[in-house]
TrEMBL record:
<feature type="domain" description="Methylated-DNA-[protein]-cysteine S-methyltransferase DNA binding">
    <location>
        <begin position="5"/>
        <end position="87"/>
    </location>
</feature>
<protein>
    <submittedName>
        <fullName>Cysteine methyltransferase</fullName>
    </submittedName>
</protein>
<dbReference type="InterPro" id="IPR036388">
    <property type="entry name" value="WH-like_DNA-bd_sf"/>
</dbReference>
<keyword id="KW-0227">DNA damage</keyword>
<dbReference type="GO" id="GO:0006281">
    <property type="term" value="P:DNA repair"/>
</dbReference>
<keyword id="KW-0489">Methyltransferase</keyword>
<dbReference type="InterPro" id="IPR036217">
    <property type="entry name" value="MethylDNA_cys_MeTrfase_DNAb"/>
</dbReference>
<dbReference type="InterPro" id="IPR052520">
    <property type="entry name" value="ATL_DNA_repair"/>
</dbReference>
<dbReference type="GO" id="GO:0032259">
    <property type="term" value="P:methylation"/>
</dbReference>
<dbReference type="Pfam" id="PF01035">
    <property type="entry name" value="DNA_binding_1"/>
</dbReference>
<dbReference type="GO" id="GO:0008168">
    <property type="term" value="F:methyltransferase activity"/>
</dbReference>
<keyword id="KW-0808">Transferase</keyword>
<dbReference type="InterPro" id="IPR014048">
    <property type="entry name" value="MethylDNA_cys_MeTrfase_DNA-bd"/>
</dbReference>
DNA sequence: GGATTGACGTGTC
DNA sequence: AGACACGCCAATC
């Protein structure tokens, strides 16, 4: 059926490969939403209720900052998961963000 | 159905 | 470099 915008977001986020990250804006753009990056984040709000669990820790803002970490059950969990996947996080910000960036528009 | 809301993005001061 | 302002657009109240 007509999946809501954030239903599409959920699916796309689940497609993010391990050890890679992407930005809300990139997701929105790949869904044809253009500048509605906020919708992506808004969708992720429901991500906690979705199943299977959505790797929301792989989604950050354009600066590579872990903006949504406070929305996790445990704020430190987001950084932990990223580091486990080989992503270096310092001061709530992804290092070498460009290297780990996964662009849905390109990869898909 | 208008107003409010956002896990954003980019530009300015 | 840090803080502030405006724009975007769909979902929810």
């Amino acid at each position: 059926m007509e999946q809501s915008f954030y239903d599409q977001v959920f699916e796309l986020v689940r497609l993010i490969p391990k050890g890679r990250v992407t930005s809300y804006g990139a997701i929105a753009k790949s869904l044809g939403a253009g500048g509605s990056a906020r919708m992506v984040g808004y969708a992720m709000s429901n991500a906690s209720l979705a199943y299977p669990a959505i790797p929301a820790h792989r989604v950050v803002n354009s600066t590579g900052l872990l903006t949504g970490k406070f929305h996790f059950a445990e704020p430190n969990l987001m950084q932990e998961l990223l580091e486990q996947e080989g992503v270096v996080v310092k001061n709530d910000k992804i290092q070498n963000f460009k290297q780990h960036f996964w662009d849905p528009l390109v990869e898909l």
